[in-house]
Specification:
This protein is α/β, with parallel strands linked by helices. It is 45% helix and 15% strand.
Length: 214
């Protein structure tokens, strides 16, 4: 076994949140500033891509600090829970753990949202959960701090782990941490120029290539 650890993003990677959630939360947030809800294309760009502060500033025309305080009023764990569920293939995770892999989570979600989502999957599955959020002193992905922290907690070198994520910021963070990055494409959003080490379309595919190629 070439790799000893598997690190995962969670939002869009292990759990999915229906479009209605981001539309409602964004609409309520923007209403407080007298702004109209943007097109679906912009809503999805805001949700899935890593340049959210830029979108807030340049498209919404709102100071990022003010925006995120207001956004947090509506994106509560209770409301998120209505729209969020684990992906169908998370049943693979216990198998990977039994095969001897150390499992970790690295997420930039707020702590209370991270707790909710990890709980949906099963916190006991993971040997380390790193909430790489600004409130915890982390810079957001693609900054590699969260991945590096998780590697240290798992006592792994960067060439002993894989980071699996669905987004541009995940693949960027993996590259910046010098960790092999796998893009788990859930077909919820089309990214451009990701250039991951590998792309898979399910955790079943991930398990298969770990067994046959790594």
């Amino acid at each position: 076994m070439k790799f000893k650890g598997l690190l995962f993003d969670i939002d869009g990677t292990l759990v999915t949140t229906r479009y209605e959630h981001r539309k409602i939360v964004l609409q309520k947030t923007l209403e407080e500033y007298g702004k109209e809800i943007p097109l679906k294309e912009i809503i999805n760009k805001f949700w899935f891509e890593g340049n959210r502060d830029e979108i807030v500033r340049e498209i919404f025309g709102i100071d990022k600090s003010d925006f995120w305080k207001t956004y947090a009023k509506y994106d509560t764990p209770g409301f998120r829970k209505i729209f969020t569920s684990p992906f169908y293939d998370i049943e693979v995770l216990p198998d990977l753990k039994r095969e001897g892999y150390k499992l970790g989570i690295v997420t930039s979600a707020p702590g209370e949202i991270a707790d909710l989502e990890v709980g949906m999957i099963g916190k006991s599955l993971f040997d380390s959960v790193v909430v790489a959020h600004v409130k915890n002193g982390f810079l957001p992905k693609p900054n590699p701090e969260g991945i590096i922290k998780c590697l240290n907690c798992l006592e792994l070198k960067n060439n002993e782990a894989i980071f699996v994520g669905n987004s541009d910021e995940d693949i960027g963070a993996a590259k910046n941490a010098n960790v092999f990055g796998i893009h788990l494409d859930r077909r919820e959003y089309k990214y451009k120029n990701l250039k991951p080490g590998r792309t898979v379309y399910s955790l079943y595919s991930l398990e298969r290539i770990l067994a046959t190629e790594f």
